[in-house]
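ENTRY TYPE: paired fold submission
RECORD: A
CONTENT: sequence, then structure tokens
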Amino acid sequence: MSVWFVTGASRGLGAEIVRAALARGHQVVATARDAAAVRGAYPQQPADLLALTADVTSPDQLRDAAGAAVRRFGRIDVVVNNAGYGLVGLTRSPVTMFTGTSY
């Protein structure tokens, strides 16, 4: 089986990806900004799950999480970068606010 490294794994699509991978017998490193939120999403705490704190905007945290994954499972086979940032607003206004430019 494969070792999956999933960011944004505490809820939504990330949590569903983790559940599906675990159900298929894979080992999963599930990360989020708060490891407690990850652990709360999987109260049964399967042995093939490693819940870690890792903010994708922090290279040091990601490096530490990848190192912990390799120490625990020996490798990483699949990376799912699910963590993201939602920008919500009226048409064109988020782009203008975010970039200072209107396309």
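RECORD: B
CONTENT: sequence, then structure tokens
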Amino acid sequence: MERAEDRFRSNPHIHNREEMIIWLMEEYSQSLVRVAYTYVKQEQLAEDIVQEVFVKCYKNLHLFRQESSYKTWLYRHSVSRINWTDKM
């Protein structure tokens, strides 16, 4: 089975970070919202958390070291953001 990262690397239409973040959002938004929802039990809050995660990742895309998959990177940011929300 082809991984999402493999589809990204073979996609000739992704040339900059704007296209990259759009691809990441299309690929992972739904699963990240589901993960966030399992923690916070509020759909709107889960969607807000994921939106904030994508904004942060967009700003820090140049820091992605490719030591993990994009999914793992986004998941870690999401869980960190959820944990921060719990402390409020």
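NOTES ON RECORD B: The longest helix spans residues 17-40. DSSP finds four helices and no strands in the chain.
STATUS: closed
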